[in-house]
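Still learning. Show one?

>
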Amino acid sequence: SSQFLDSKFIPFWRWTMPNLSELRLSGCHPPPAGLSFAQTLKTFAINSDAECVEPFDIIQLANFLASCKSLEIVILRFFNWKSSTSCQLRGVAHVKEIEISFFACRPEAAKAICSSVYFPDAGEVDLTIGRTDIKEGEMDWIAKHQAIVDECLAHHPSLKSLSFSFLPNSMTFTPILLPLPDLLELEELKLE
């Protein structure tokens, strides 16, 4: 039930965990901002499948990430998201490595997520777009995929390492252009 996703029903959000350095979540919403462990957390990962749990508002994720002052690694995996409302773009400083994955998501939802949070200090990005939810007959699917890539990478000009995986819905060639001319510090590139 979605009422149990509310932080008042998740008792460990209220626990004092002064040494917590890693938090990996699956099947629940991000914690509220400003919890006791936000200052010590170094790694945060969330797997969110909209077919299993009601999608959360991206502002909730952005606010929590912004409250974590020691984060170094962020892993965001979204499955089956059909829609999302973007929030005001928020940069999360100090994060060095990010992984963002979209599987069976609508392109508009993926783009809204990427337009809500970014990591200006990230030197390593792993971006995966897997089998997006494109409706039969949609003609602008190439532009929609390109918009996800552009939005995700637009705010990360200091990248030294980029891994990009694109798993299209069909075996048809999909010309996705990475903004390589804008990534002046790029040293390592992995394409799948």
In short: Residues 141-153 form the longest helix (13 residues). The longest strand covers residues 43-49. Residues 1-5 have pLDDT under 50 and may be disordered.
